[in-house]
Every structure is written in C-alpha cells, then in structure tokens.
Amino acid sequence: MKAADTCRHLPFGSRFLRKLAGDIPDIPINILGLIFKNKVGLAAGFDKNGEYIEVLKHLGFGHIEVGTVTPRPQPGNNLPRLFRLKDDYALINRMGFNNKGVHHLVENLRQLSSERPILGGNIGKNKDTPNEQAWQDYIYCFKYLHPHVDYFTINLSSPNTPGLRALQEKEPLIKILSEIQQYNQGLEQPKPILLKISPDNSQTVLDDIIQVAQECRINGIIATNTTIERKGLITPECILNEIGNGGLSGKPLFNRSLEVVRYLKTALPDEMVIIGVGGISDHASYMKMLDSGADLVQIYTTFIYQGMKTVKKIVQQ
Ligand SMILES: Cc1cc2nc3c(=O)[nH]c(=O)nc-3n(C[C@H](O)[C@H](O)[C@H](O)COP(=O)(O)O)c2cc1C
Q1: CB contact burial 49-61 (16+ within 10 A = b; e otherwise)
Q2: What is the DSSP string of 64-118?
Q3: How many domains does the chain have?
Q4: Comparing C-alpha atoms, which of 228, 277, 272, 274 is closest to residue 257?
Q5: How far is the CA of 140 from the centre of ligand 1 (A)?
Q6: Are 228 and 247 in contact (CB under 8 A)?
Q7: Hey, whose CA ends up nearest to atom 1 of ligand 1?
Q8: Which residue in 161, 170, 271, 287 has its CB near the most CB atoms, within 10 A?
Q9: Which residue has its alpha carbon closest to ligand 1 atom 24?
Q10: For position 168, what pLDDT does the model report?
C-alpha cells in the first residue's frame, strides 16, 4: 500500500494504478439512497485510519469502509497478531482495534478530494471502556465522523476486544442502537446505520438482533465479522495452537456467512439492506452471496491474497 501510495503521487501514477486494477465496468446501483458504482466494497479493518482512500479508489471498490475507529487512539494487541493460513486461503487476526482515534481519521477524511468514493464509517469502543458505558464511545465516534462518511457501521462483533460481542445481546443492543438512532434522527441529515454481526451468534441471539434492528429502525445488517471457530481447516492443529486466539477470515468462513445472509433475507423486511461479507474469493462466491440475499458485498482476505486485480476478478466472470 505504501508503494501504491508513492506511485499515486508520480506523473500518470493514478492512471497506472487504474491500469493495474484492470477495466472494471461501472454497474451503478442505488442502495441506502446512495449510488454505488458496483456491489463490491472493501471491508472494515483494512484502512482503519483512512490513510489509503486515494489509492484504494483506483482499485475499483464500489465503497470503502474505514475503521474500526475508537474515540481515543489505542495500540491494539502485541505482535505477532496477524497470520496467513495459506492452505486454507484464510487469515487469523487478533489486531484488537489498533487505530489512531476518531480525530485522526476525521483529519484524513477532511483532506480527501471531492471525487471520493462512497465511505462507510465503522465505529467501536476503546478496550478500557466498560461495556455499560460503551454507548457513549459509539455516540462520540458517530458525532465527529458524521459529516465525513455516507453510512455508519456499528461494530459489536470483533472477537478481539474482550466482552465486545456480548453487546449484541438484547439489552445492551437496544441501549446502543436506540441512543445512536436518537442522536442520528435529531440531525438535519440523518445517515444510514448498519449493524455488523458475528457469525458465531446462537440462533436466539440472531433472532433478538433481527427484532431489535427493526425496532430501532436501523437500515441494515452486515454479515459477518470473523469467526472464532476452527473447524474443517487444512492447517494442522499444532500450527493453529501456535497461532492462538483470533478471528478467522477467508474461504473457511464463506459457508457460515452465506447461511447467516440467507437467514437474514427470510427474516428481515425487504427495505432493510444486507451486506454479505466473509470468504468471498471469486466471481462464483460473489454471485452466490448476492443470490442468497445480499444487496452488496464486502471483501478483505481475498484482497490480501489476490492484490490489485481483485475487484475485477470478483465482478467479472
Ligand atoms: C486483519 C483484519 C482486521 C480486521 N479488522 C476489522 C475491524 O477493525 N472492524 C471490523 O468490523 N472488521 C474487521 N475485520 C473483519 C473484516 O472486515 C471481515 O468482516 C472479515 O475479514 C470477513 O471477510 P473476508 O473473509 O473477506 O476477510 C478484520 C479482518 C482482518 C483480516
């Protein structure tokens, strides 16, 4: 990304980056009241601080989700915290919301040119904020990011912030979503709000989420974040034990995220948007996710493995 960023500043650099990404036809689509140039977005966690948007926009993404950002900067977990499982076409990470804080992100977003891509702001809580006060962290990030992003993602599903996923349970979920929605609806220009959920929720928790999401009138759900499951991997158990805790992403996640998307499609009203994410790696898996009910998709791990031409390979057969 640093090399690509340097390239962008050279004469014809942007054109060169677009050439590397390949010709990606625009297939504009109106979702959440926004015009997306295509259905493939970059998932949260890749550009946590909004440092590479001017590069990423040349690689064909229909939208870019920045963050997860927290109110205050935090270093995240100790290194090593990111591992490739090449045989599984997967990653395990326990980054732990390393980010430079919402004000740094806002500064970067302020400097973007007017031709910026559609941006989602993925927001979280600081590690040392107790769960009872978590809603205040979400409101804080929401407030400062609001003028600079097109939609928001409430992230309650990272496995790498202790206790975070418990916030998906009914009571804390109602508190957080209703506080954010109350603030949002009081603004002159309310923004769409999505909730990003874990693939590891029980059926009861998933049903509660579906109910609360409708009651709080949020606009949709992003399914899913990484999983703590390790079933069915090719990577030997001794290596997995050496790696230790973290969220698994990439191909092994695909069937579960597809299953969650399929269920959401049957349970949510049509006007609620579903963004499918988890293990999409080629055109076939992309189409399968759309056919199962996703309005848009996002990718992360496959971009790490495939590089500059990823979006083209996914959008085109
Ligand atoms: C290194 C890494 C960091 C991530 N950080 C975040 C994050 O900060 N916030 C978030 O909502 N999801 C984060 N994710 C999850 C991705 O956004 C995505 O939901 C997940 O990786 C599944 O998609 P994939 O199989 O295409 O990678 C991260 C994933 C990876 C691999």
Answers
A1: bbbbbbbbbbbbb
A2: EEEEEE-SS-B--SPSP-EEEEGGGTEEEE---S-B--HHHHHHHHHTS-TTPPE
A3: 1
A4: 277
A5: 22
A6: yes
A7: 93
A8: 161
A9: 278
A10: 77
CB 281 near ligand 1, within 6 Å: no
3-class state of residue 194 by DSSP = strand
Kindly tell me if the per-residue pLDDT of 317 is higher than 80. no
According to the model, what pLDDT value does residue 42 have? 98
Strand pairing class (193-197; 151-155): parallel
pTM of the full structure: 0.97
Distance 11 CA to ligand 1 centre (A): 33
Q: Which ligand 1 atom minimizes the distance to the CA of 249?
A: 25
Is residue 91 lining ligand 1, measured as CB closer than 6 Å?
A: yes
Rounded Cα–Cα distance for residues 53 and 119 (Å): 9
Catalytic residue among 157, 158, 285, 292: 158
Mean pLDDT of 192-217: 95
Q: Is 63 buried (19+), middle (13-18) or exposed (0-12) by CB count in 10 A?
A: buried
Question: pLDDT-based confidence at 134, cuts 50/70/90?
Answer: very high
Give the model confidence (pLDDT) of 217-264 as tens digits. 999 999 999 999 999 999 999 999 999 999 999 999 999 999 999 999
Q: Tell me the pairing of strands 296-299 and 40-42.
A: parallel
113 as an active site residue: the answer is no
Q: Average of pLDDT values for 57-66?
A: 96
Cβ of 50 less than 6 Å from ligand 1: no
Give the residue numbers spanning the domain of 144.
Answer: 2-315
Which of 156, 249, 305 to mutate to test ligand 1, by most ligand atoms within 8 A of the CB atom? 249
